[in-house]
Amino acid sequence: MSAGRGAHAVALLSGGLDSATALAWAKSEGFLCHALTVDYGQRHRVEIDAARRVASSLGVQDHRIVSADLRAFGGSALTAAIEVPKDRPLAEMGSGIPVSYVPARNTVLLALALAHAETLGATDLIAGMNALDYSGYPDCRPEFLRAFEQVAALGTRAGAEGARFTIHAPLMSLDKAGIVKLGQELGVDFSQTHSCYDPDQDGAACGACDACQLRLKGFREAGVADPVRYRVPIPERG
Known about the structure:
The protein is of the alpha/beta class and 238 residues long.
């Protein structure tokens, strides 16, 4: 029987490759998905429109966009006037924490997803974090997700009454190529997604930030053409 068994679940949906594939996985497992997109003041706001497109193309129970403006604190190239790192060697991306890290972002996002789930009577959360091809963010690790499940158990009425919350992170052990292949198998329309941290005003991806490089690496290794628009032709990267 499918893992979802018709259960309602809240799926965090940024509009990127990973969250779109995680949502498609959840649907394939039988979950009834309620998509949640968080407008946290990100500079790359075109991803919110991408989230709308993905939610529409994949089909969800409903799609909510809520605000939690992390620009109030700054501290990240994604929420403050700090230059987005470009052309970092891929080998460096898994070591250290880059300036594109948004302080406590995934903690905030999961807390909002948890609140939404509790109002729905749902105990399943879907998230697109992965711990292989990522930019060194500490809140993308499996131990963080397991710890948050404990927070959910201890800090909610549902948890106090015996409900057990589960965060499903189906991409956790996949590299970007594996994510692309899984998304392709599940029918994700990659042209609807957006990954770039520093797009043009018309939404064209820069091709040089960490997110673009990791995305391009995944498509290249999967042998699949990336259908999104880039500012300039993208050379092969090592």
